[in-house]
Amino acid sequence: MALFKFIGSKSKIGIDLGTASIKIVELEKGGGRFNLLNYGIFELKSTDAGGQSMLKLPDDEIVWGIKEVIKQSKIQSKETTVSIPSFSTFSTVIEMPYLSKEELARAIPFEARKYIPIPLSEVNLDWSIVDILNEQPSGSMAGRPTVVEVFIAAVPKDETIRYQNIIKGAGLDLKALELENSAISRALLGNDLAPTAIINIGGRSTSIIIVDKGYERVGHNYEVGGFEITKSIARSLNVSIEKAEELKRKLGLRPIDENIVNEAMSSLVDMMAFETKKTITNYEEAKNIQVSKVLLIGGMANMPNFAGYFQKKLEREVMLGNTFARIVYPEGLNAAIREISNTFCVAAGLAMRET
Ligand SMILES: Nc1ncnc2c1ncn2[C@@H]1O[C@H](COP(=O)(O)OP(=O)(O)OP(=O)(O)O)[C@@H](O)[C@H]1O
Ligand SMILES: [Mg+2]
């Protein structure tokens, strides 16, 4: 859909190649705010998606899917940022002795080797300073920073090349590749530095991340998502995958007597909540702090009563992440924005990236 377009403005697009669908958002920055220009999605049918994922499709089919979304959504911009799914990247925050920036740049690859499970020659390594800590409260070194926290991220080079080819094939300019979780935290948190847990439940996987001082501190990935839930419903009720998908979306976890799918999926959702609880508690205990918010995103967050159920299991307040908190959109979209918010979080965060 073509929403609104400002003449002479420069817009950017974000592309999220998820396993269930391709999502694209086009944003334009004007007067210090982002405006939503267009968005679109290309969904794999759940029958296909149950066994196969988007990223396993041949590159030319992904290129075709991207072009379809661009055409149907009337997206104009070529300036593209694409996300890399968290299961194919490595990132962590490490502590280093405080050095000059030049010395850090030399020392980080050596340090990074300890954390990255594949040879450094096979990855593109990026890093940024999260915080400079002062751990010398007294004595002659008082007030002098001694430890620096550094966020390091590595993307396998063959992945980088694959994404470059796909984007070029779609006739777009790839400005950056970005970690999926960095896009999520930009979209949901902006400059909010408070420790926040974000649960992204997609088709193939669930990721639980803790963002603190603007950077991902903990990131866990579980190979359980919406497909697994659909399959479980199909098995339990002995219905087709299509029917199970329909029931999942219609009944979800609504606390009503005639809810026949409730039981078929609650053990999988309980497991997600259990893992989330453990991740949050471990972080709080290790750092001796309180995680201030728990946010839910991903297509599964659209399921009826999912957030309510999850909150009860987690025994903490859970909110749906608001992707559009920092984006201006046409009033006519008010009703649809809740659902798009969960699905388009990564794509919007990518389009918000400053060059
Ligand atoms: N209204 C809804 N109710 C229940 N489930 C839904 C609803 N909308 C989408 N889903 C489910 O959300 C999942 C897709 O979510 P999402 O679009 O976040 O996945 P993805 O980003 O493509 O996958 P991944 O992040 O795992 O690669 C599917 O399993 C789909 O069935
Ligand atoms: Mg996703």
TrEMBL record:
Which source organism? Candidatus Yanofskybacteria bacterium RIFCSPHIGHO2_02_FULL_46_19
Instruction: Quote the InterPro entries the UniProt record gives.
Output: ATPase_NBD (IPR043129), FtsA/MreB (IPR050696), PilM (IPR005883)
Q: Which Pfam families match?
A: PilM_2
Give the source's domain of life in one word.
Bacteria
Protein name (record): SHS2 domain-containing protein
